[in-house]
Amino acid sequence: MTDVFYASYYGSSKQYADALAERLGVTAREISDESASLIDVSAAAPIIVLSPIHGPSHPGVKFVKELEKAGLVDKRRIALATVGMTLDDVVVAQDPAGELLGNLAERVERFYLPGRMNYSELRVKHRNIMKGLVTMLKMKPGKSKNDQMMIDTYGEDVDRVDLSRLDAIVEWVGNHT
């Protein structure tokens, strides 16, 4: 049975995880300190981790590294689906999850899913970080498409969640079960 784990700050990663789990006939479980110990090491089905990324903070990468310590990365196929607001072509080219995974990247399949940024729901700390980031981007010469998107959508609620993007993950699971 495929295991689906997630971390979510504002709900889009959980929304994806719940929809994926429903499609696979399993239950999505939130990542916790005990999560790695709950996984059946004798099972052969893949493990899928969905997680947001906020700068260098990526709970999904941290969890995959825990799976490696538990010896699961070499026993079961692992996929990491990163949920974020970076434009598709930019995030694929940059592959931030791959960079954060380091030498684990070659053993972890990576997917990128568009998320949701509701400024109306942001915690004060996150709102202040975004304000500082956008202020710096406005002063930057030669802005990229992604920079301009961040400036243009600053302060707005933007929902880019697209559950059809789970099709690629479901197909990957089907090819590895």
Can you describe this structure in just a few lines?
With 177 residues, this protein is α/β, with parallel strands linked by helices.
Overview of this structure, please?
The protein is an alpha/beta fold and 177 residues long. Helices cover 40% and strands 19% of the residues. It is built from 7 helices and 7 strands. The protein has helices at 12-24, 59-69, 88-94, 96-101, 124-139, 145-152, 167-175, and strands spanning 3-6, 28-30, 47-52, 78-84, 108-114, 116-118, 157-159. The strands form 2 sheets. It has a 5-stranded parallel beta sheet with strand order 2-1-3-4-5, sandwiched between helices. Strands 6-7 form a two-stranded antiparallel ribbon. Strand 3, helix 2 (59-69) and strand 4 (78-84) form a beta-alpha-beta unit. The chain is elongated, with a radius of gyration of 17 Å.
Number of extended strands: 7
Helix content: 25-40%
- The largest sheet has its strands arranged as 2-1-3-4-5
Structural class: alpha/beta
Indicate the overall shape: elongated
Overall mean pLDDT stands at 93
The percentage of residues in β strands lies in 15-25%
